[in-house]
Amino acid sequence: MQGRTQELCLLLLLGLGSQGTLPPPCDSQIYCHGELLHQVQMARLYRDDKQFVDMPLSSAPDQVLQDFCELAAAHKHHIPPQQLQAFIQKHFQAAGQELLSWTPEDWKDSPRLLQKISDPKLRAWAGQLHQLWKKLGKKVKPEVLSHPEQFSLIYSAHPFIVPGGRFVEFYYWDSYWVMEGLLLSEMPQTVKGMLQNFLDLVRLYGHVPNGARVYYLQRSQPPLLTLMMDRYVTHTNDTAFLRDNIETLALELDFWMENRTISVSSGGQSYVLNHYAVPYGGPRPEAYSKDFELADTLPEEDRVALWAELKAGAESGWDFSSRWLVGGPNSTSLSSIRTSKFVPVDLNAFLCQAEALMSNFYSRLGNDIQATKYRNLKQQRLAAMRAILWDEEKGAWFDYDLENGKKNLEFYPSNLTPLWSGCFSDPDAVDKALKYLEDSQILTYQYGIPTSLQKTGQQWDFPNAWAPLQDLVIRGLAKSPSPRAQEVAFQLAQNWIRTNFEVYSQKSAMFEKYDISNGGQPGGGGEYEVQEGFGWTNGVVLMLLDRYGDRLTSGTQTAFLEPHCLTAALLLSLLPSLLPW
After folding, report:
1. DSSP H helical ranges for 206-300
2. Where does the signal sequence lie (predicted)?
């Protein structure tokens, strides 16, 4: 009789919170789907849904599920919050217990970068940012390896740097800018360990998950692993490490080409490009209650598609933005999200760059067949991007809306990612992009480049500005041989440095995003409070101080770049300092 009760109980657990026609984000009936997750998250016992799915188990999952099953049956599947809280206290540990603080072994005082910074206040600040790596270092406890079923954290053999705040595990695309900062801090061994963690994930799962949690397993993030390897090998000349892992890099690109491609026709020709798409069901476990309630506003037959599109938005790194809402029934409501219906400029620019790097890697290793393969892939993508994403009249690239058969002509910094990634063939592209920035009035923003010009309340929209997006535009322009483009890049860098420095001076903290609408403040909007730390923000600041340290100042006057001011700014600048990146 007891066995039959247990069987019925488990069937109920599996049934509630059904994913519809799509599989769940992972198999765990605690961390990814099922009645336990549903009841806890919908009871809103925590301010942030992520807190619960980050909590380790105190005993085996089968025992926890069985005990929950009996509790649910006793309360006819409506467990009072007090009993639910008591159950969690008995069966779960506090979030973060599976991680230990870690001081990187290759951290040292006074990296050479500091000597390049003329302004004493900025130099002192850079020294403090260098210190922050020690606060953001983590390593995984061995119990996660011996009992993985009791944790949502995925085991990593090597220590790593985290973003900070609620993000206590590492994330995919964040880590690229973190690594750039670490290399400037002369910490290549830390970078190598982080790279090894990512490569291990590719070997295990076939791709790099969004972050190091089981509930992130079925979605990735912007594919920058090949670029991370390039930065590490350029810094260390560790060709043996490249040779040992080149096939794993190829495996990751295969994931994108096998699971995230879309065919687009133009001018009688068909092109293959990539998009973000996560065909997995159910609410995101780390934002369960929000996703479930949002789905309640839609007809039942539309809910599975909504949850998949929300995951695709998370995979894009831009979670969330009007960029994925435009063209839908309500372009200000998250219920209209349609991420997979766009061919994004930045994703394809990142993959184009990865294909070029893979060609270079294989040439370096003496494999001409593979080098030619990736060189051809890059050329095919360049042609596709020009045919589908480039707009000659506007002078920029734009996401392509598959359903409506047209480009999304709204401004996003991502529109200029091909300049950053070197994936363009028109020698005048930089001058055209500069005119595009002028025409869009982007150079009039004094505290940073806005993420969009739409104010929706989403965090990847106006008035927020994000460090990686500043880098996309600034370095895209700085790589140009045009002194004018280089000067605009410097002025944009100056604006961003002053915003970050002034907020740090007031708050003694670095933030994941900044509000540039009123003098520069910590950002807001989205699904959670603004987070401190902050990995990629620190990395971009160190990159800009490394590039422009002899010119940047900590003063309060930010640059206001009307088009007619550019020539004057250029004349006032010292041409010898305008070296290519």
Report:
1. 225-236, 239-259, 288-295
2. 1-28
Give the chain's radius of gyration (CA, Å): 24
In which residue are the tokens 């001011």 written?
565
**pLDDT > 90: percent of the chain:** 89
pLDDT at 21: 84
Contact 253, 226 (CB under 8 A): yes
pLDDT for 518: 84
Rounded Cα–Cα distance for residues 414 and 17 (Å): 36
25 close to 33: Cβ distance less than 8 angstroms: yes
Query: CA angle 143-149-153, nearest 5°?
Result: 65
**Residues belonging to the active site:** 319, 512
Strand order of the sheet with strand 160-161? 99-101, 137-140, 160-161
Pinpoint the alpha helices (H) of 427-482: 429-439, 467-478
Question: Which residue's entry shows tokens 């870690």?
Answer: 102
Per-residue pLDDT at 500 exceeds 90: yes
What is the per-residue pLDDT across 540-550, written as a single tens digit (0 to 9) for each?
Answer: 999 999 999 99
What is the enclosing helix (H) or strand (E) of 373? helix 368-388
**pLDDT confidence of residue 519:** 85
| pTM of this structure | 0.94
DSSP 153: B
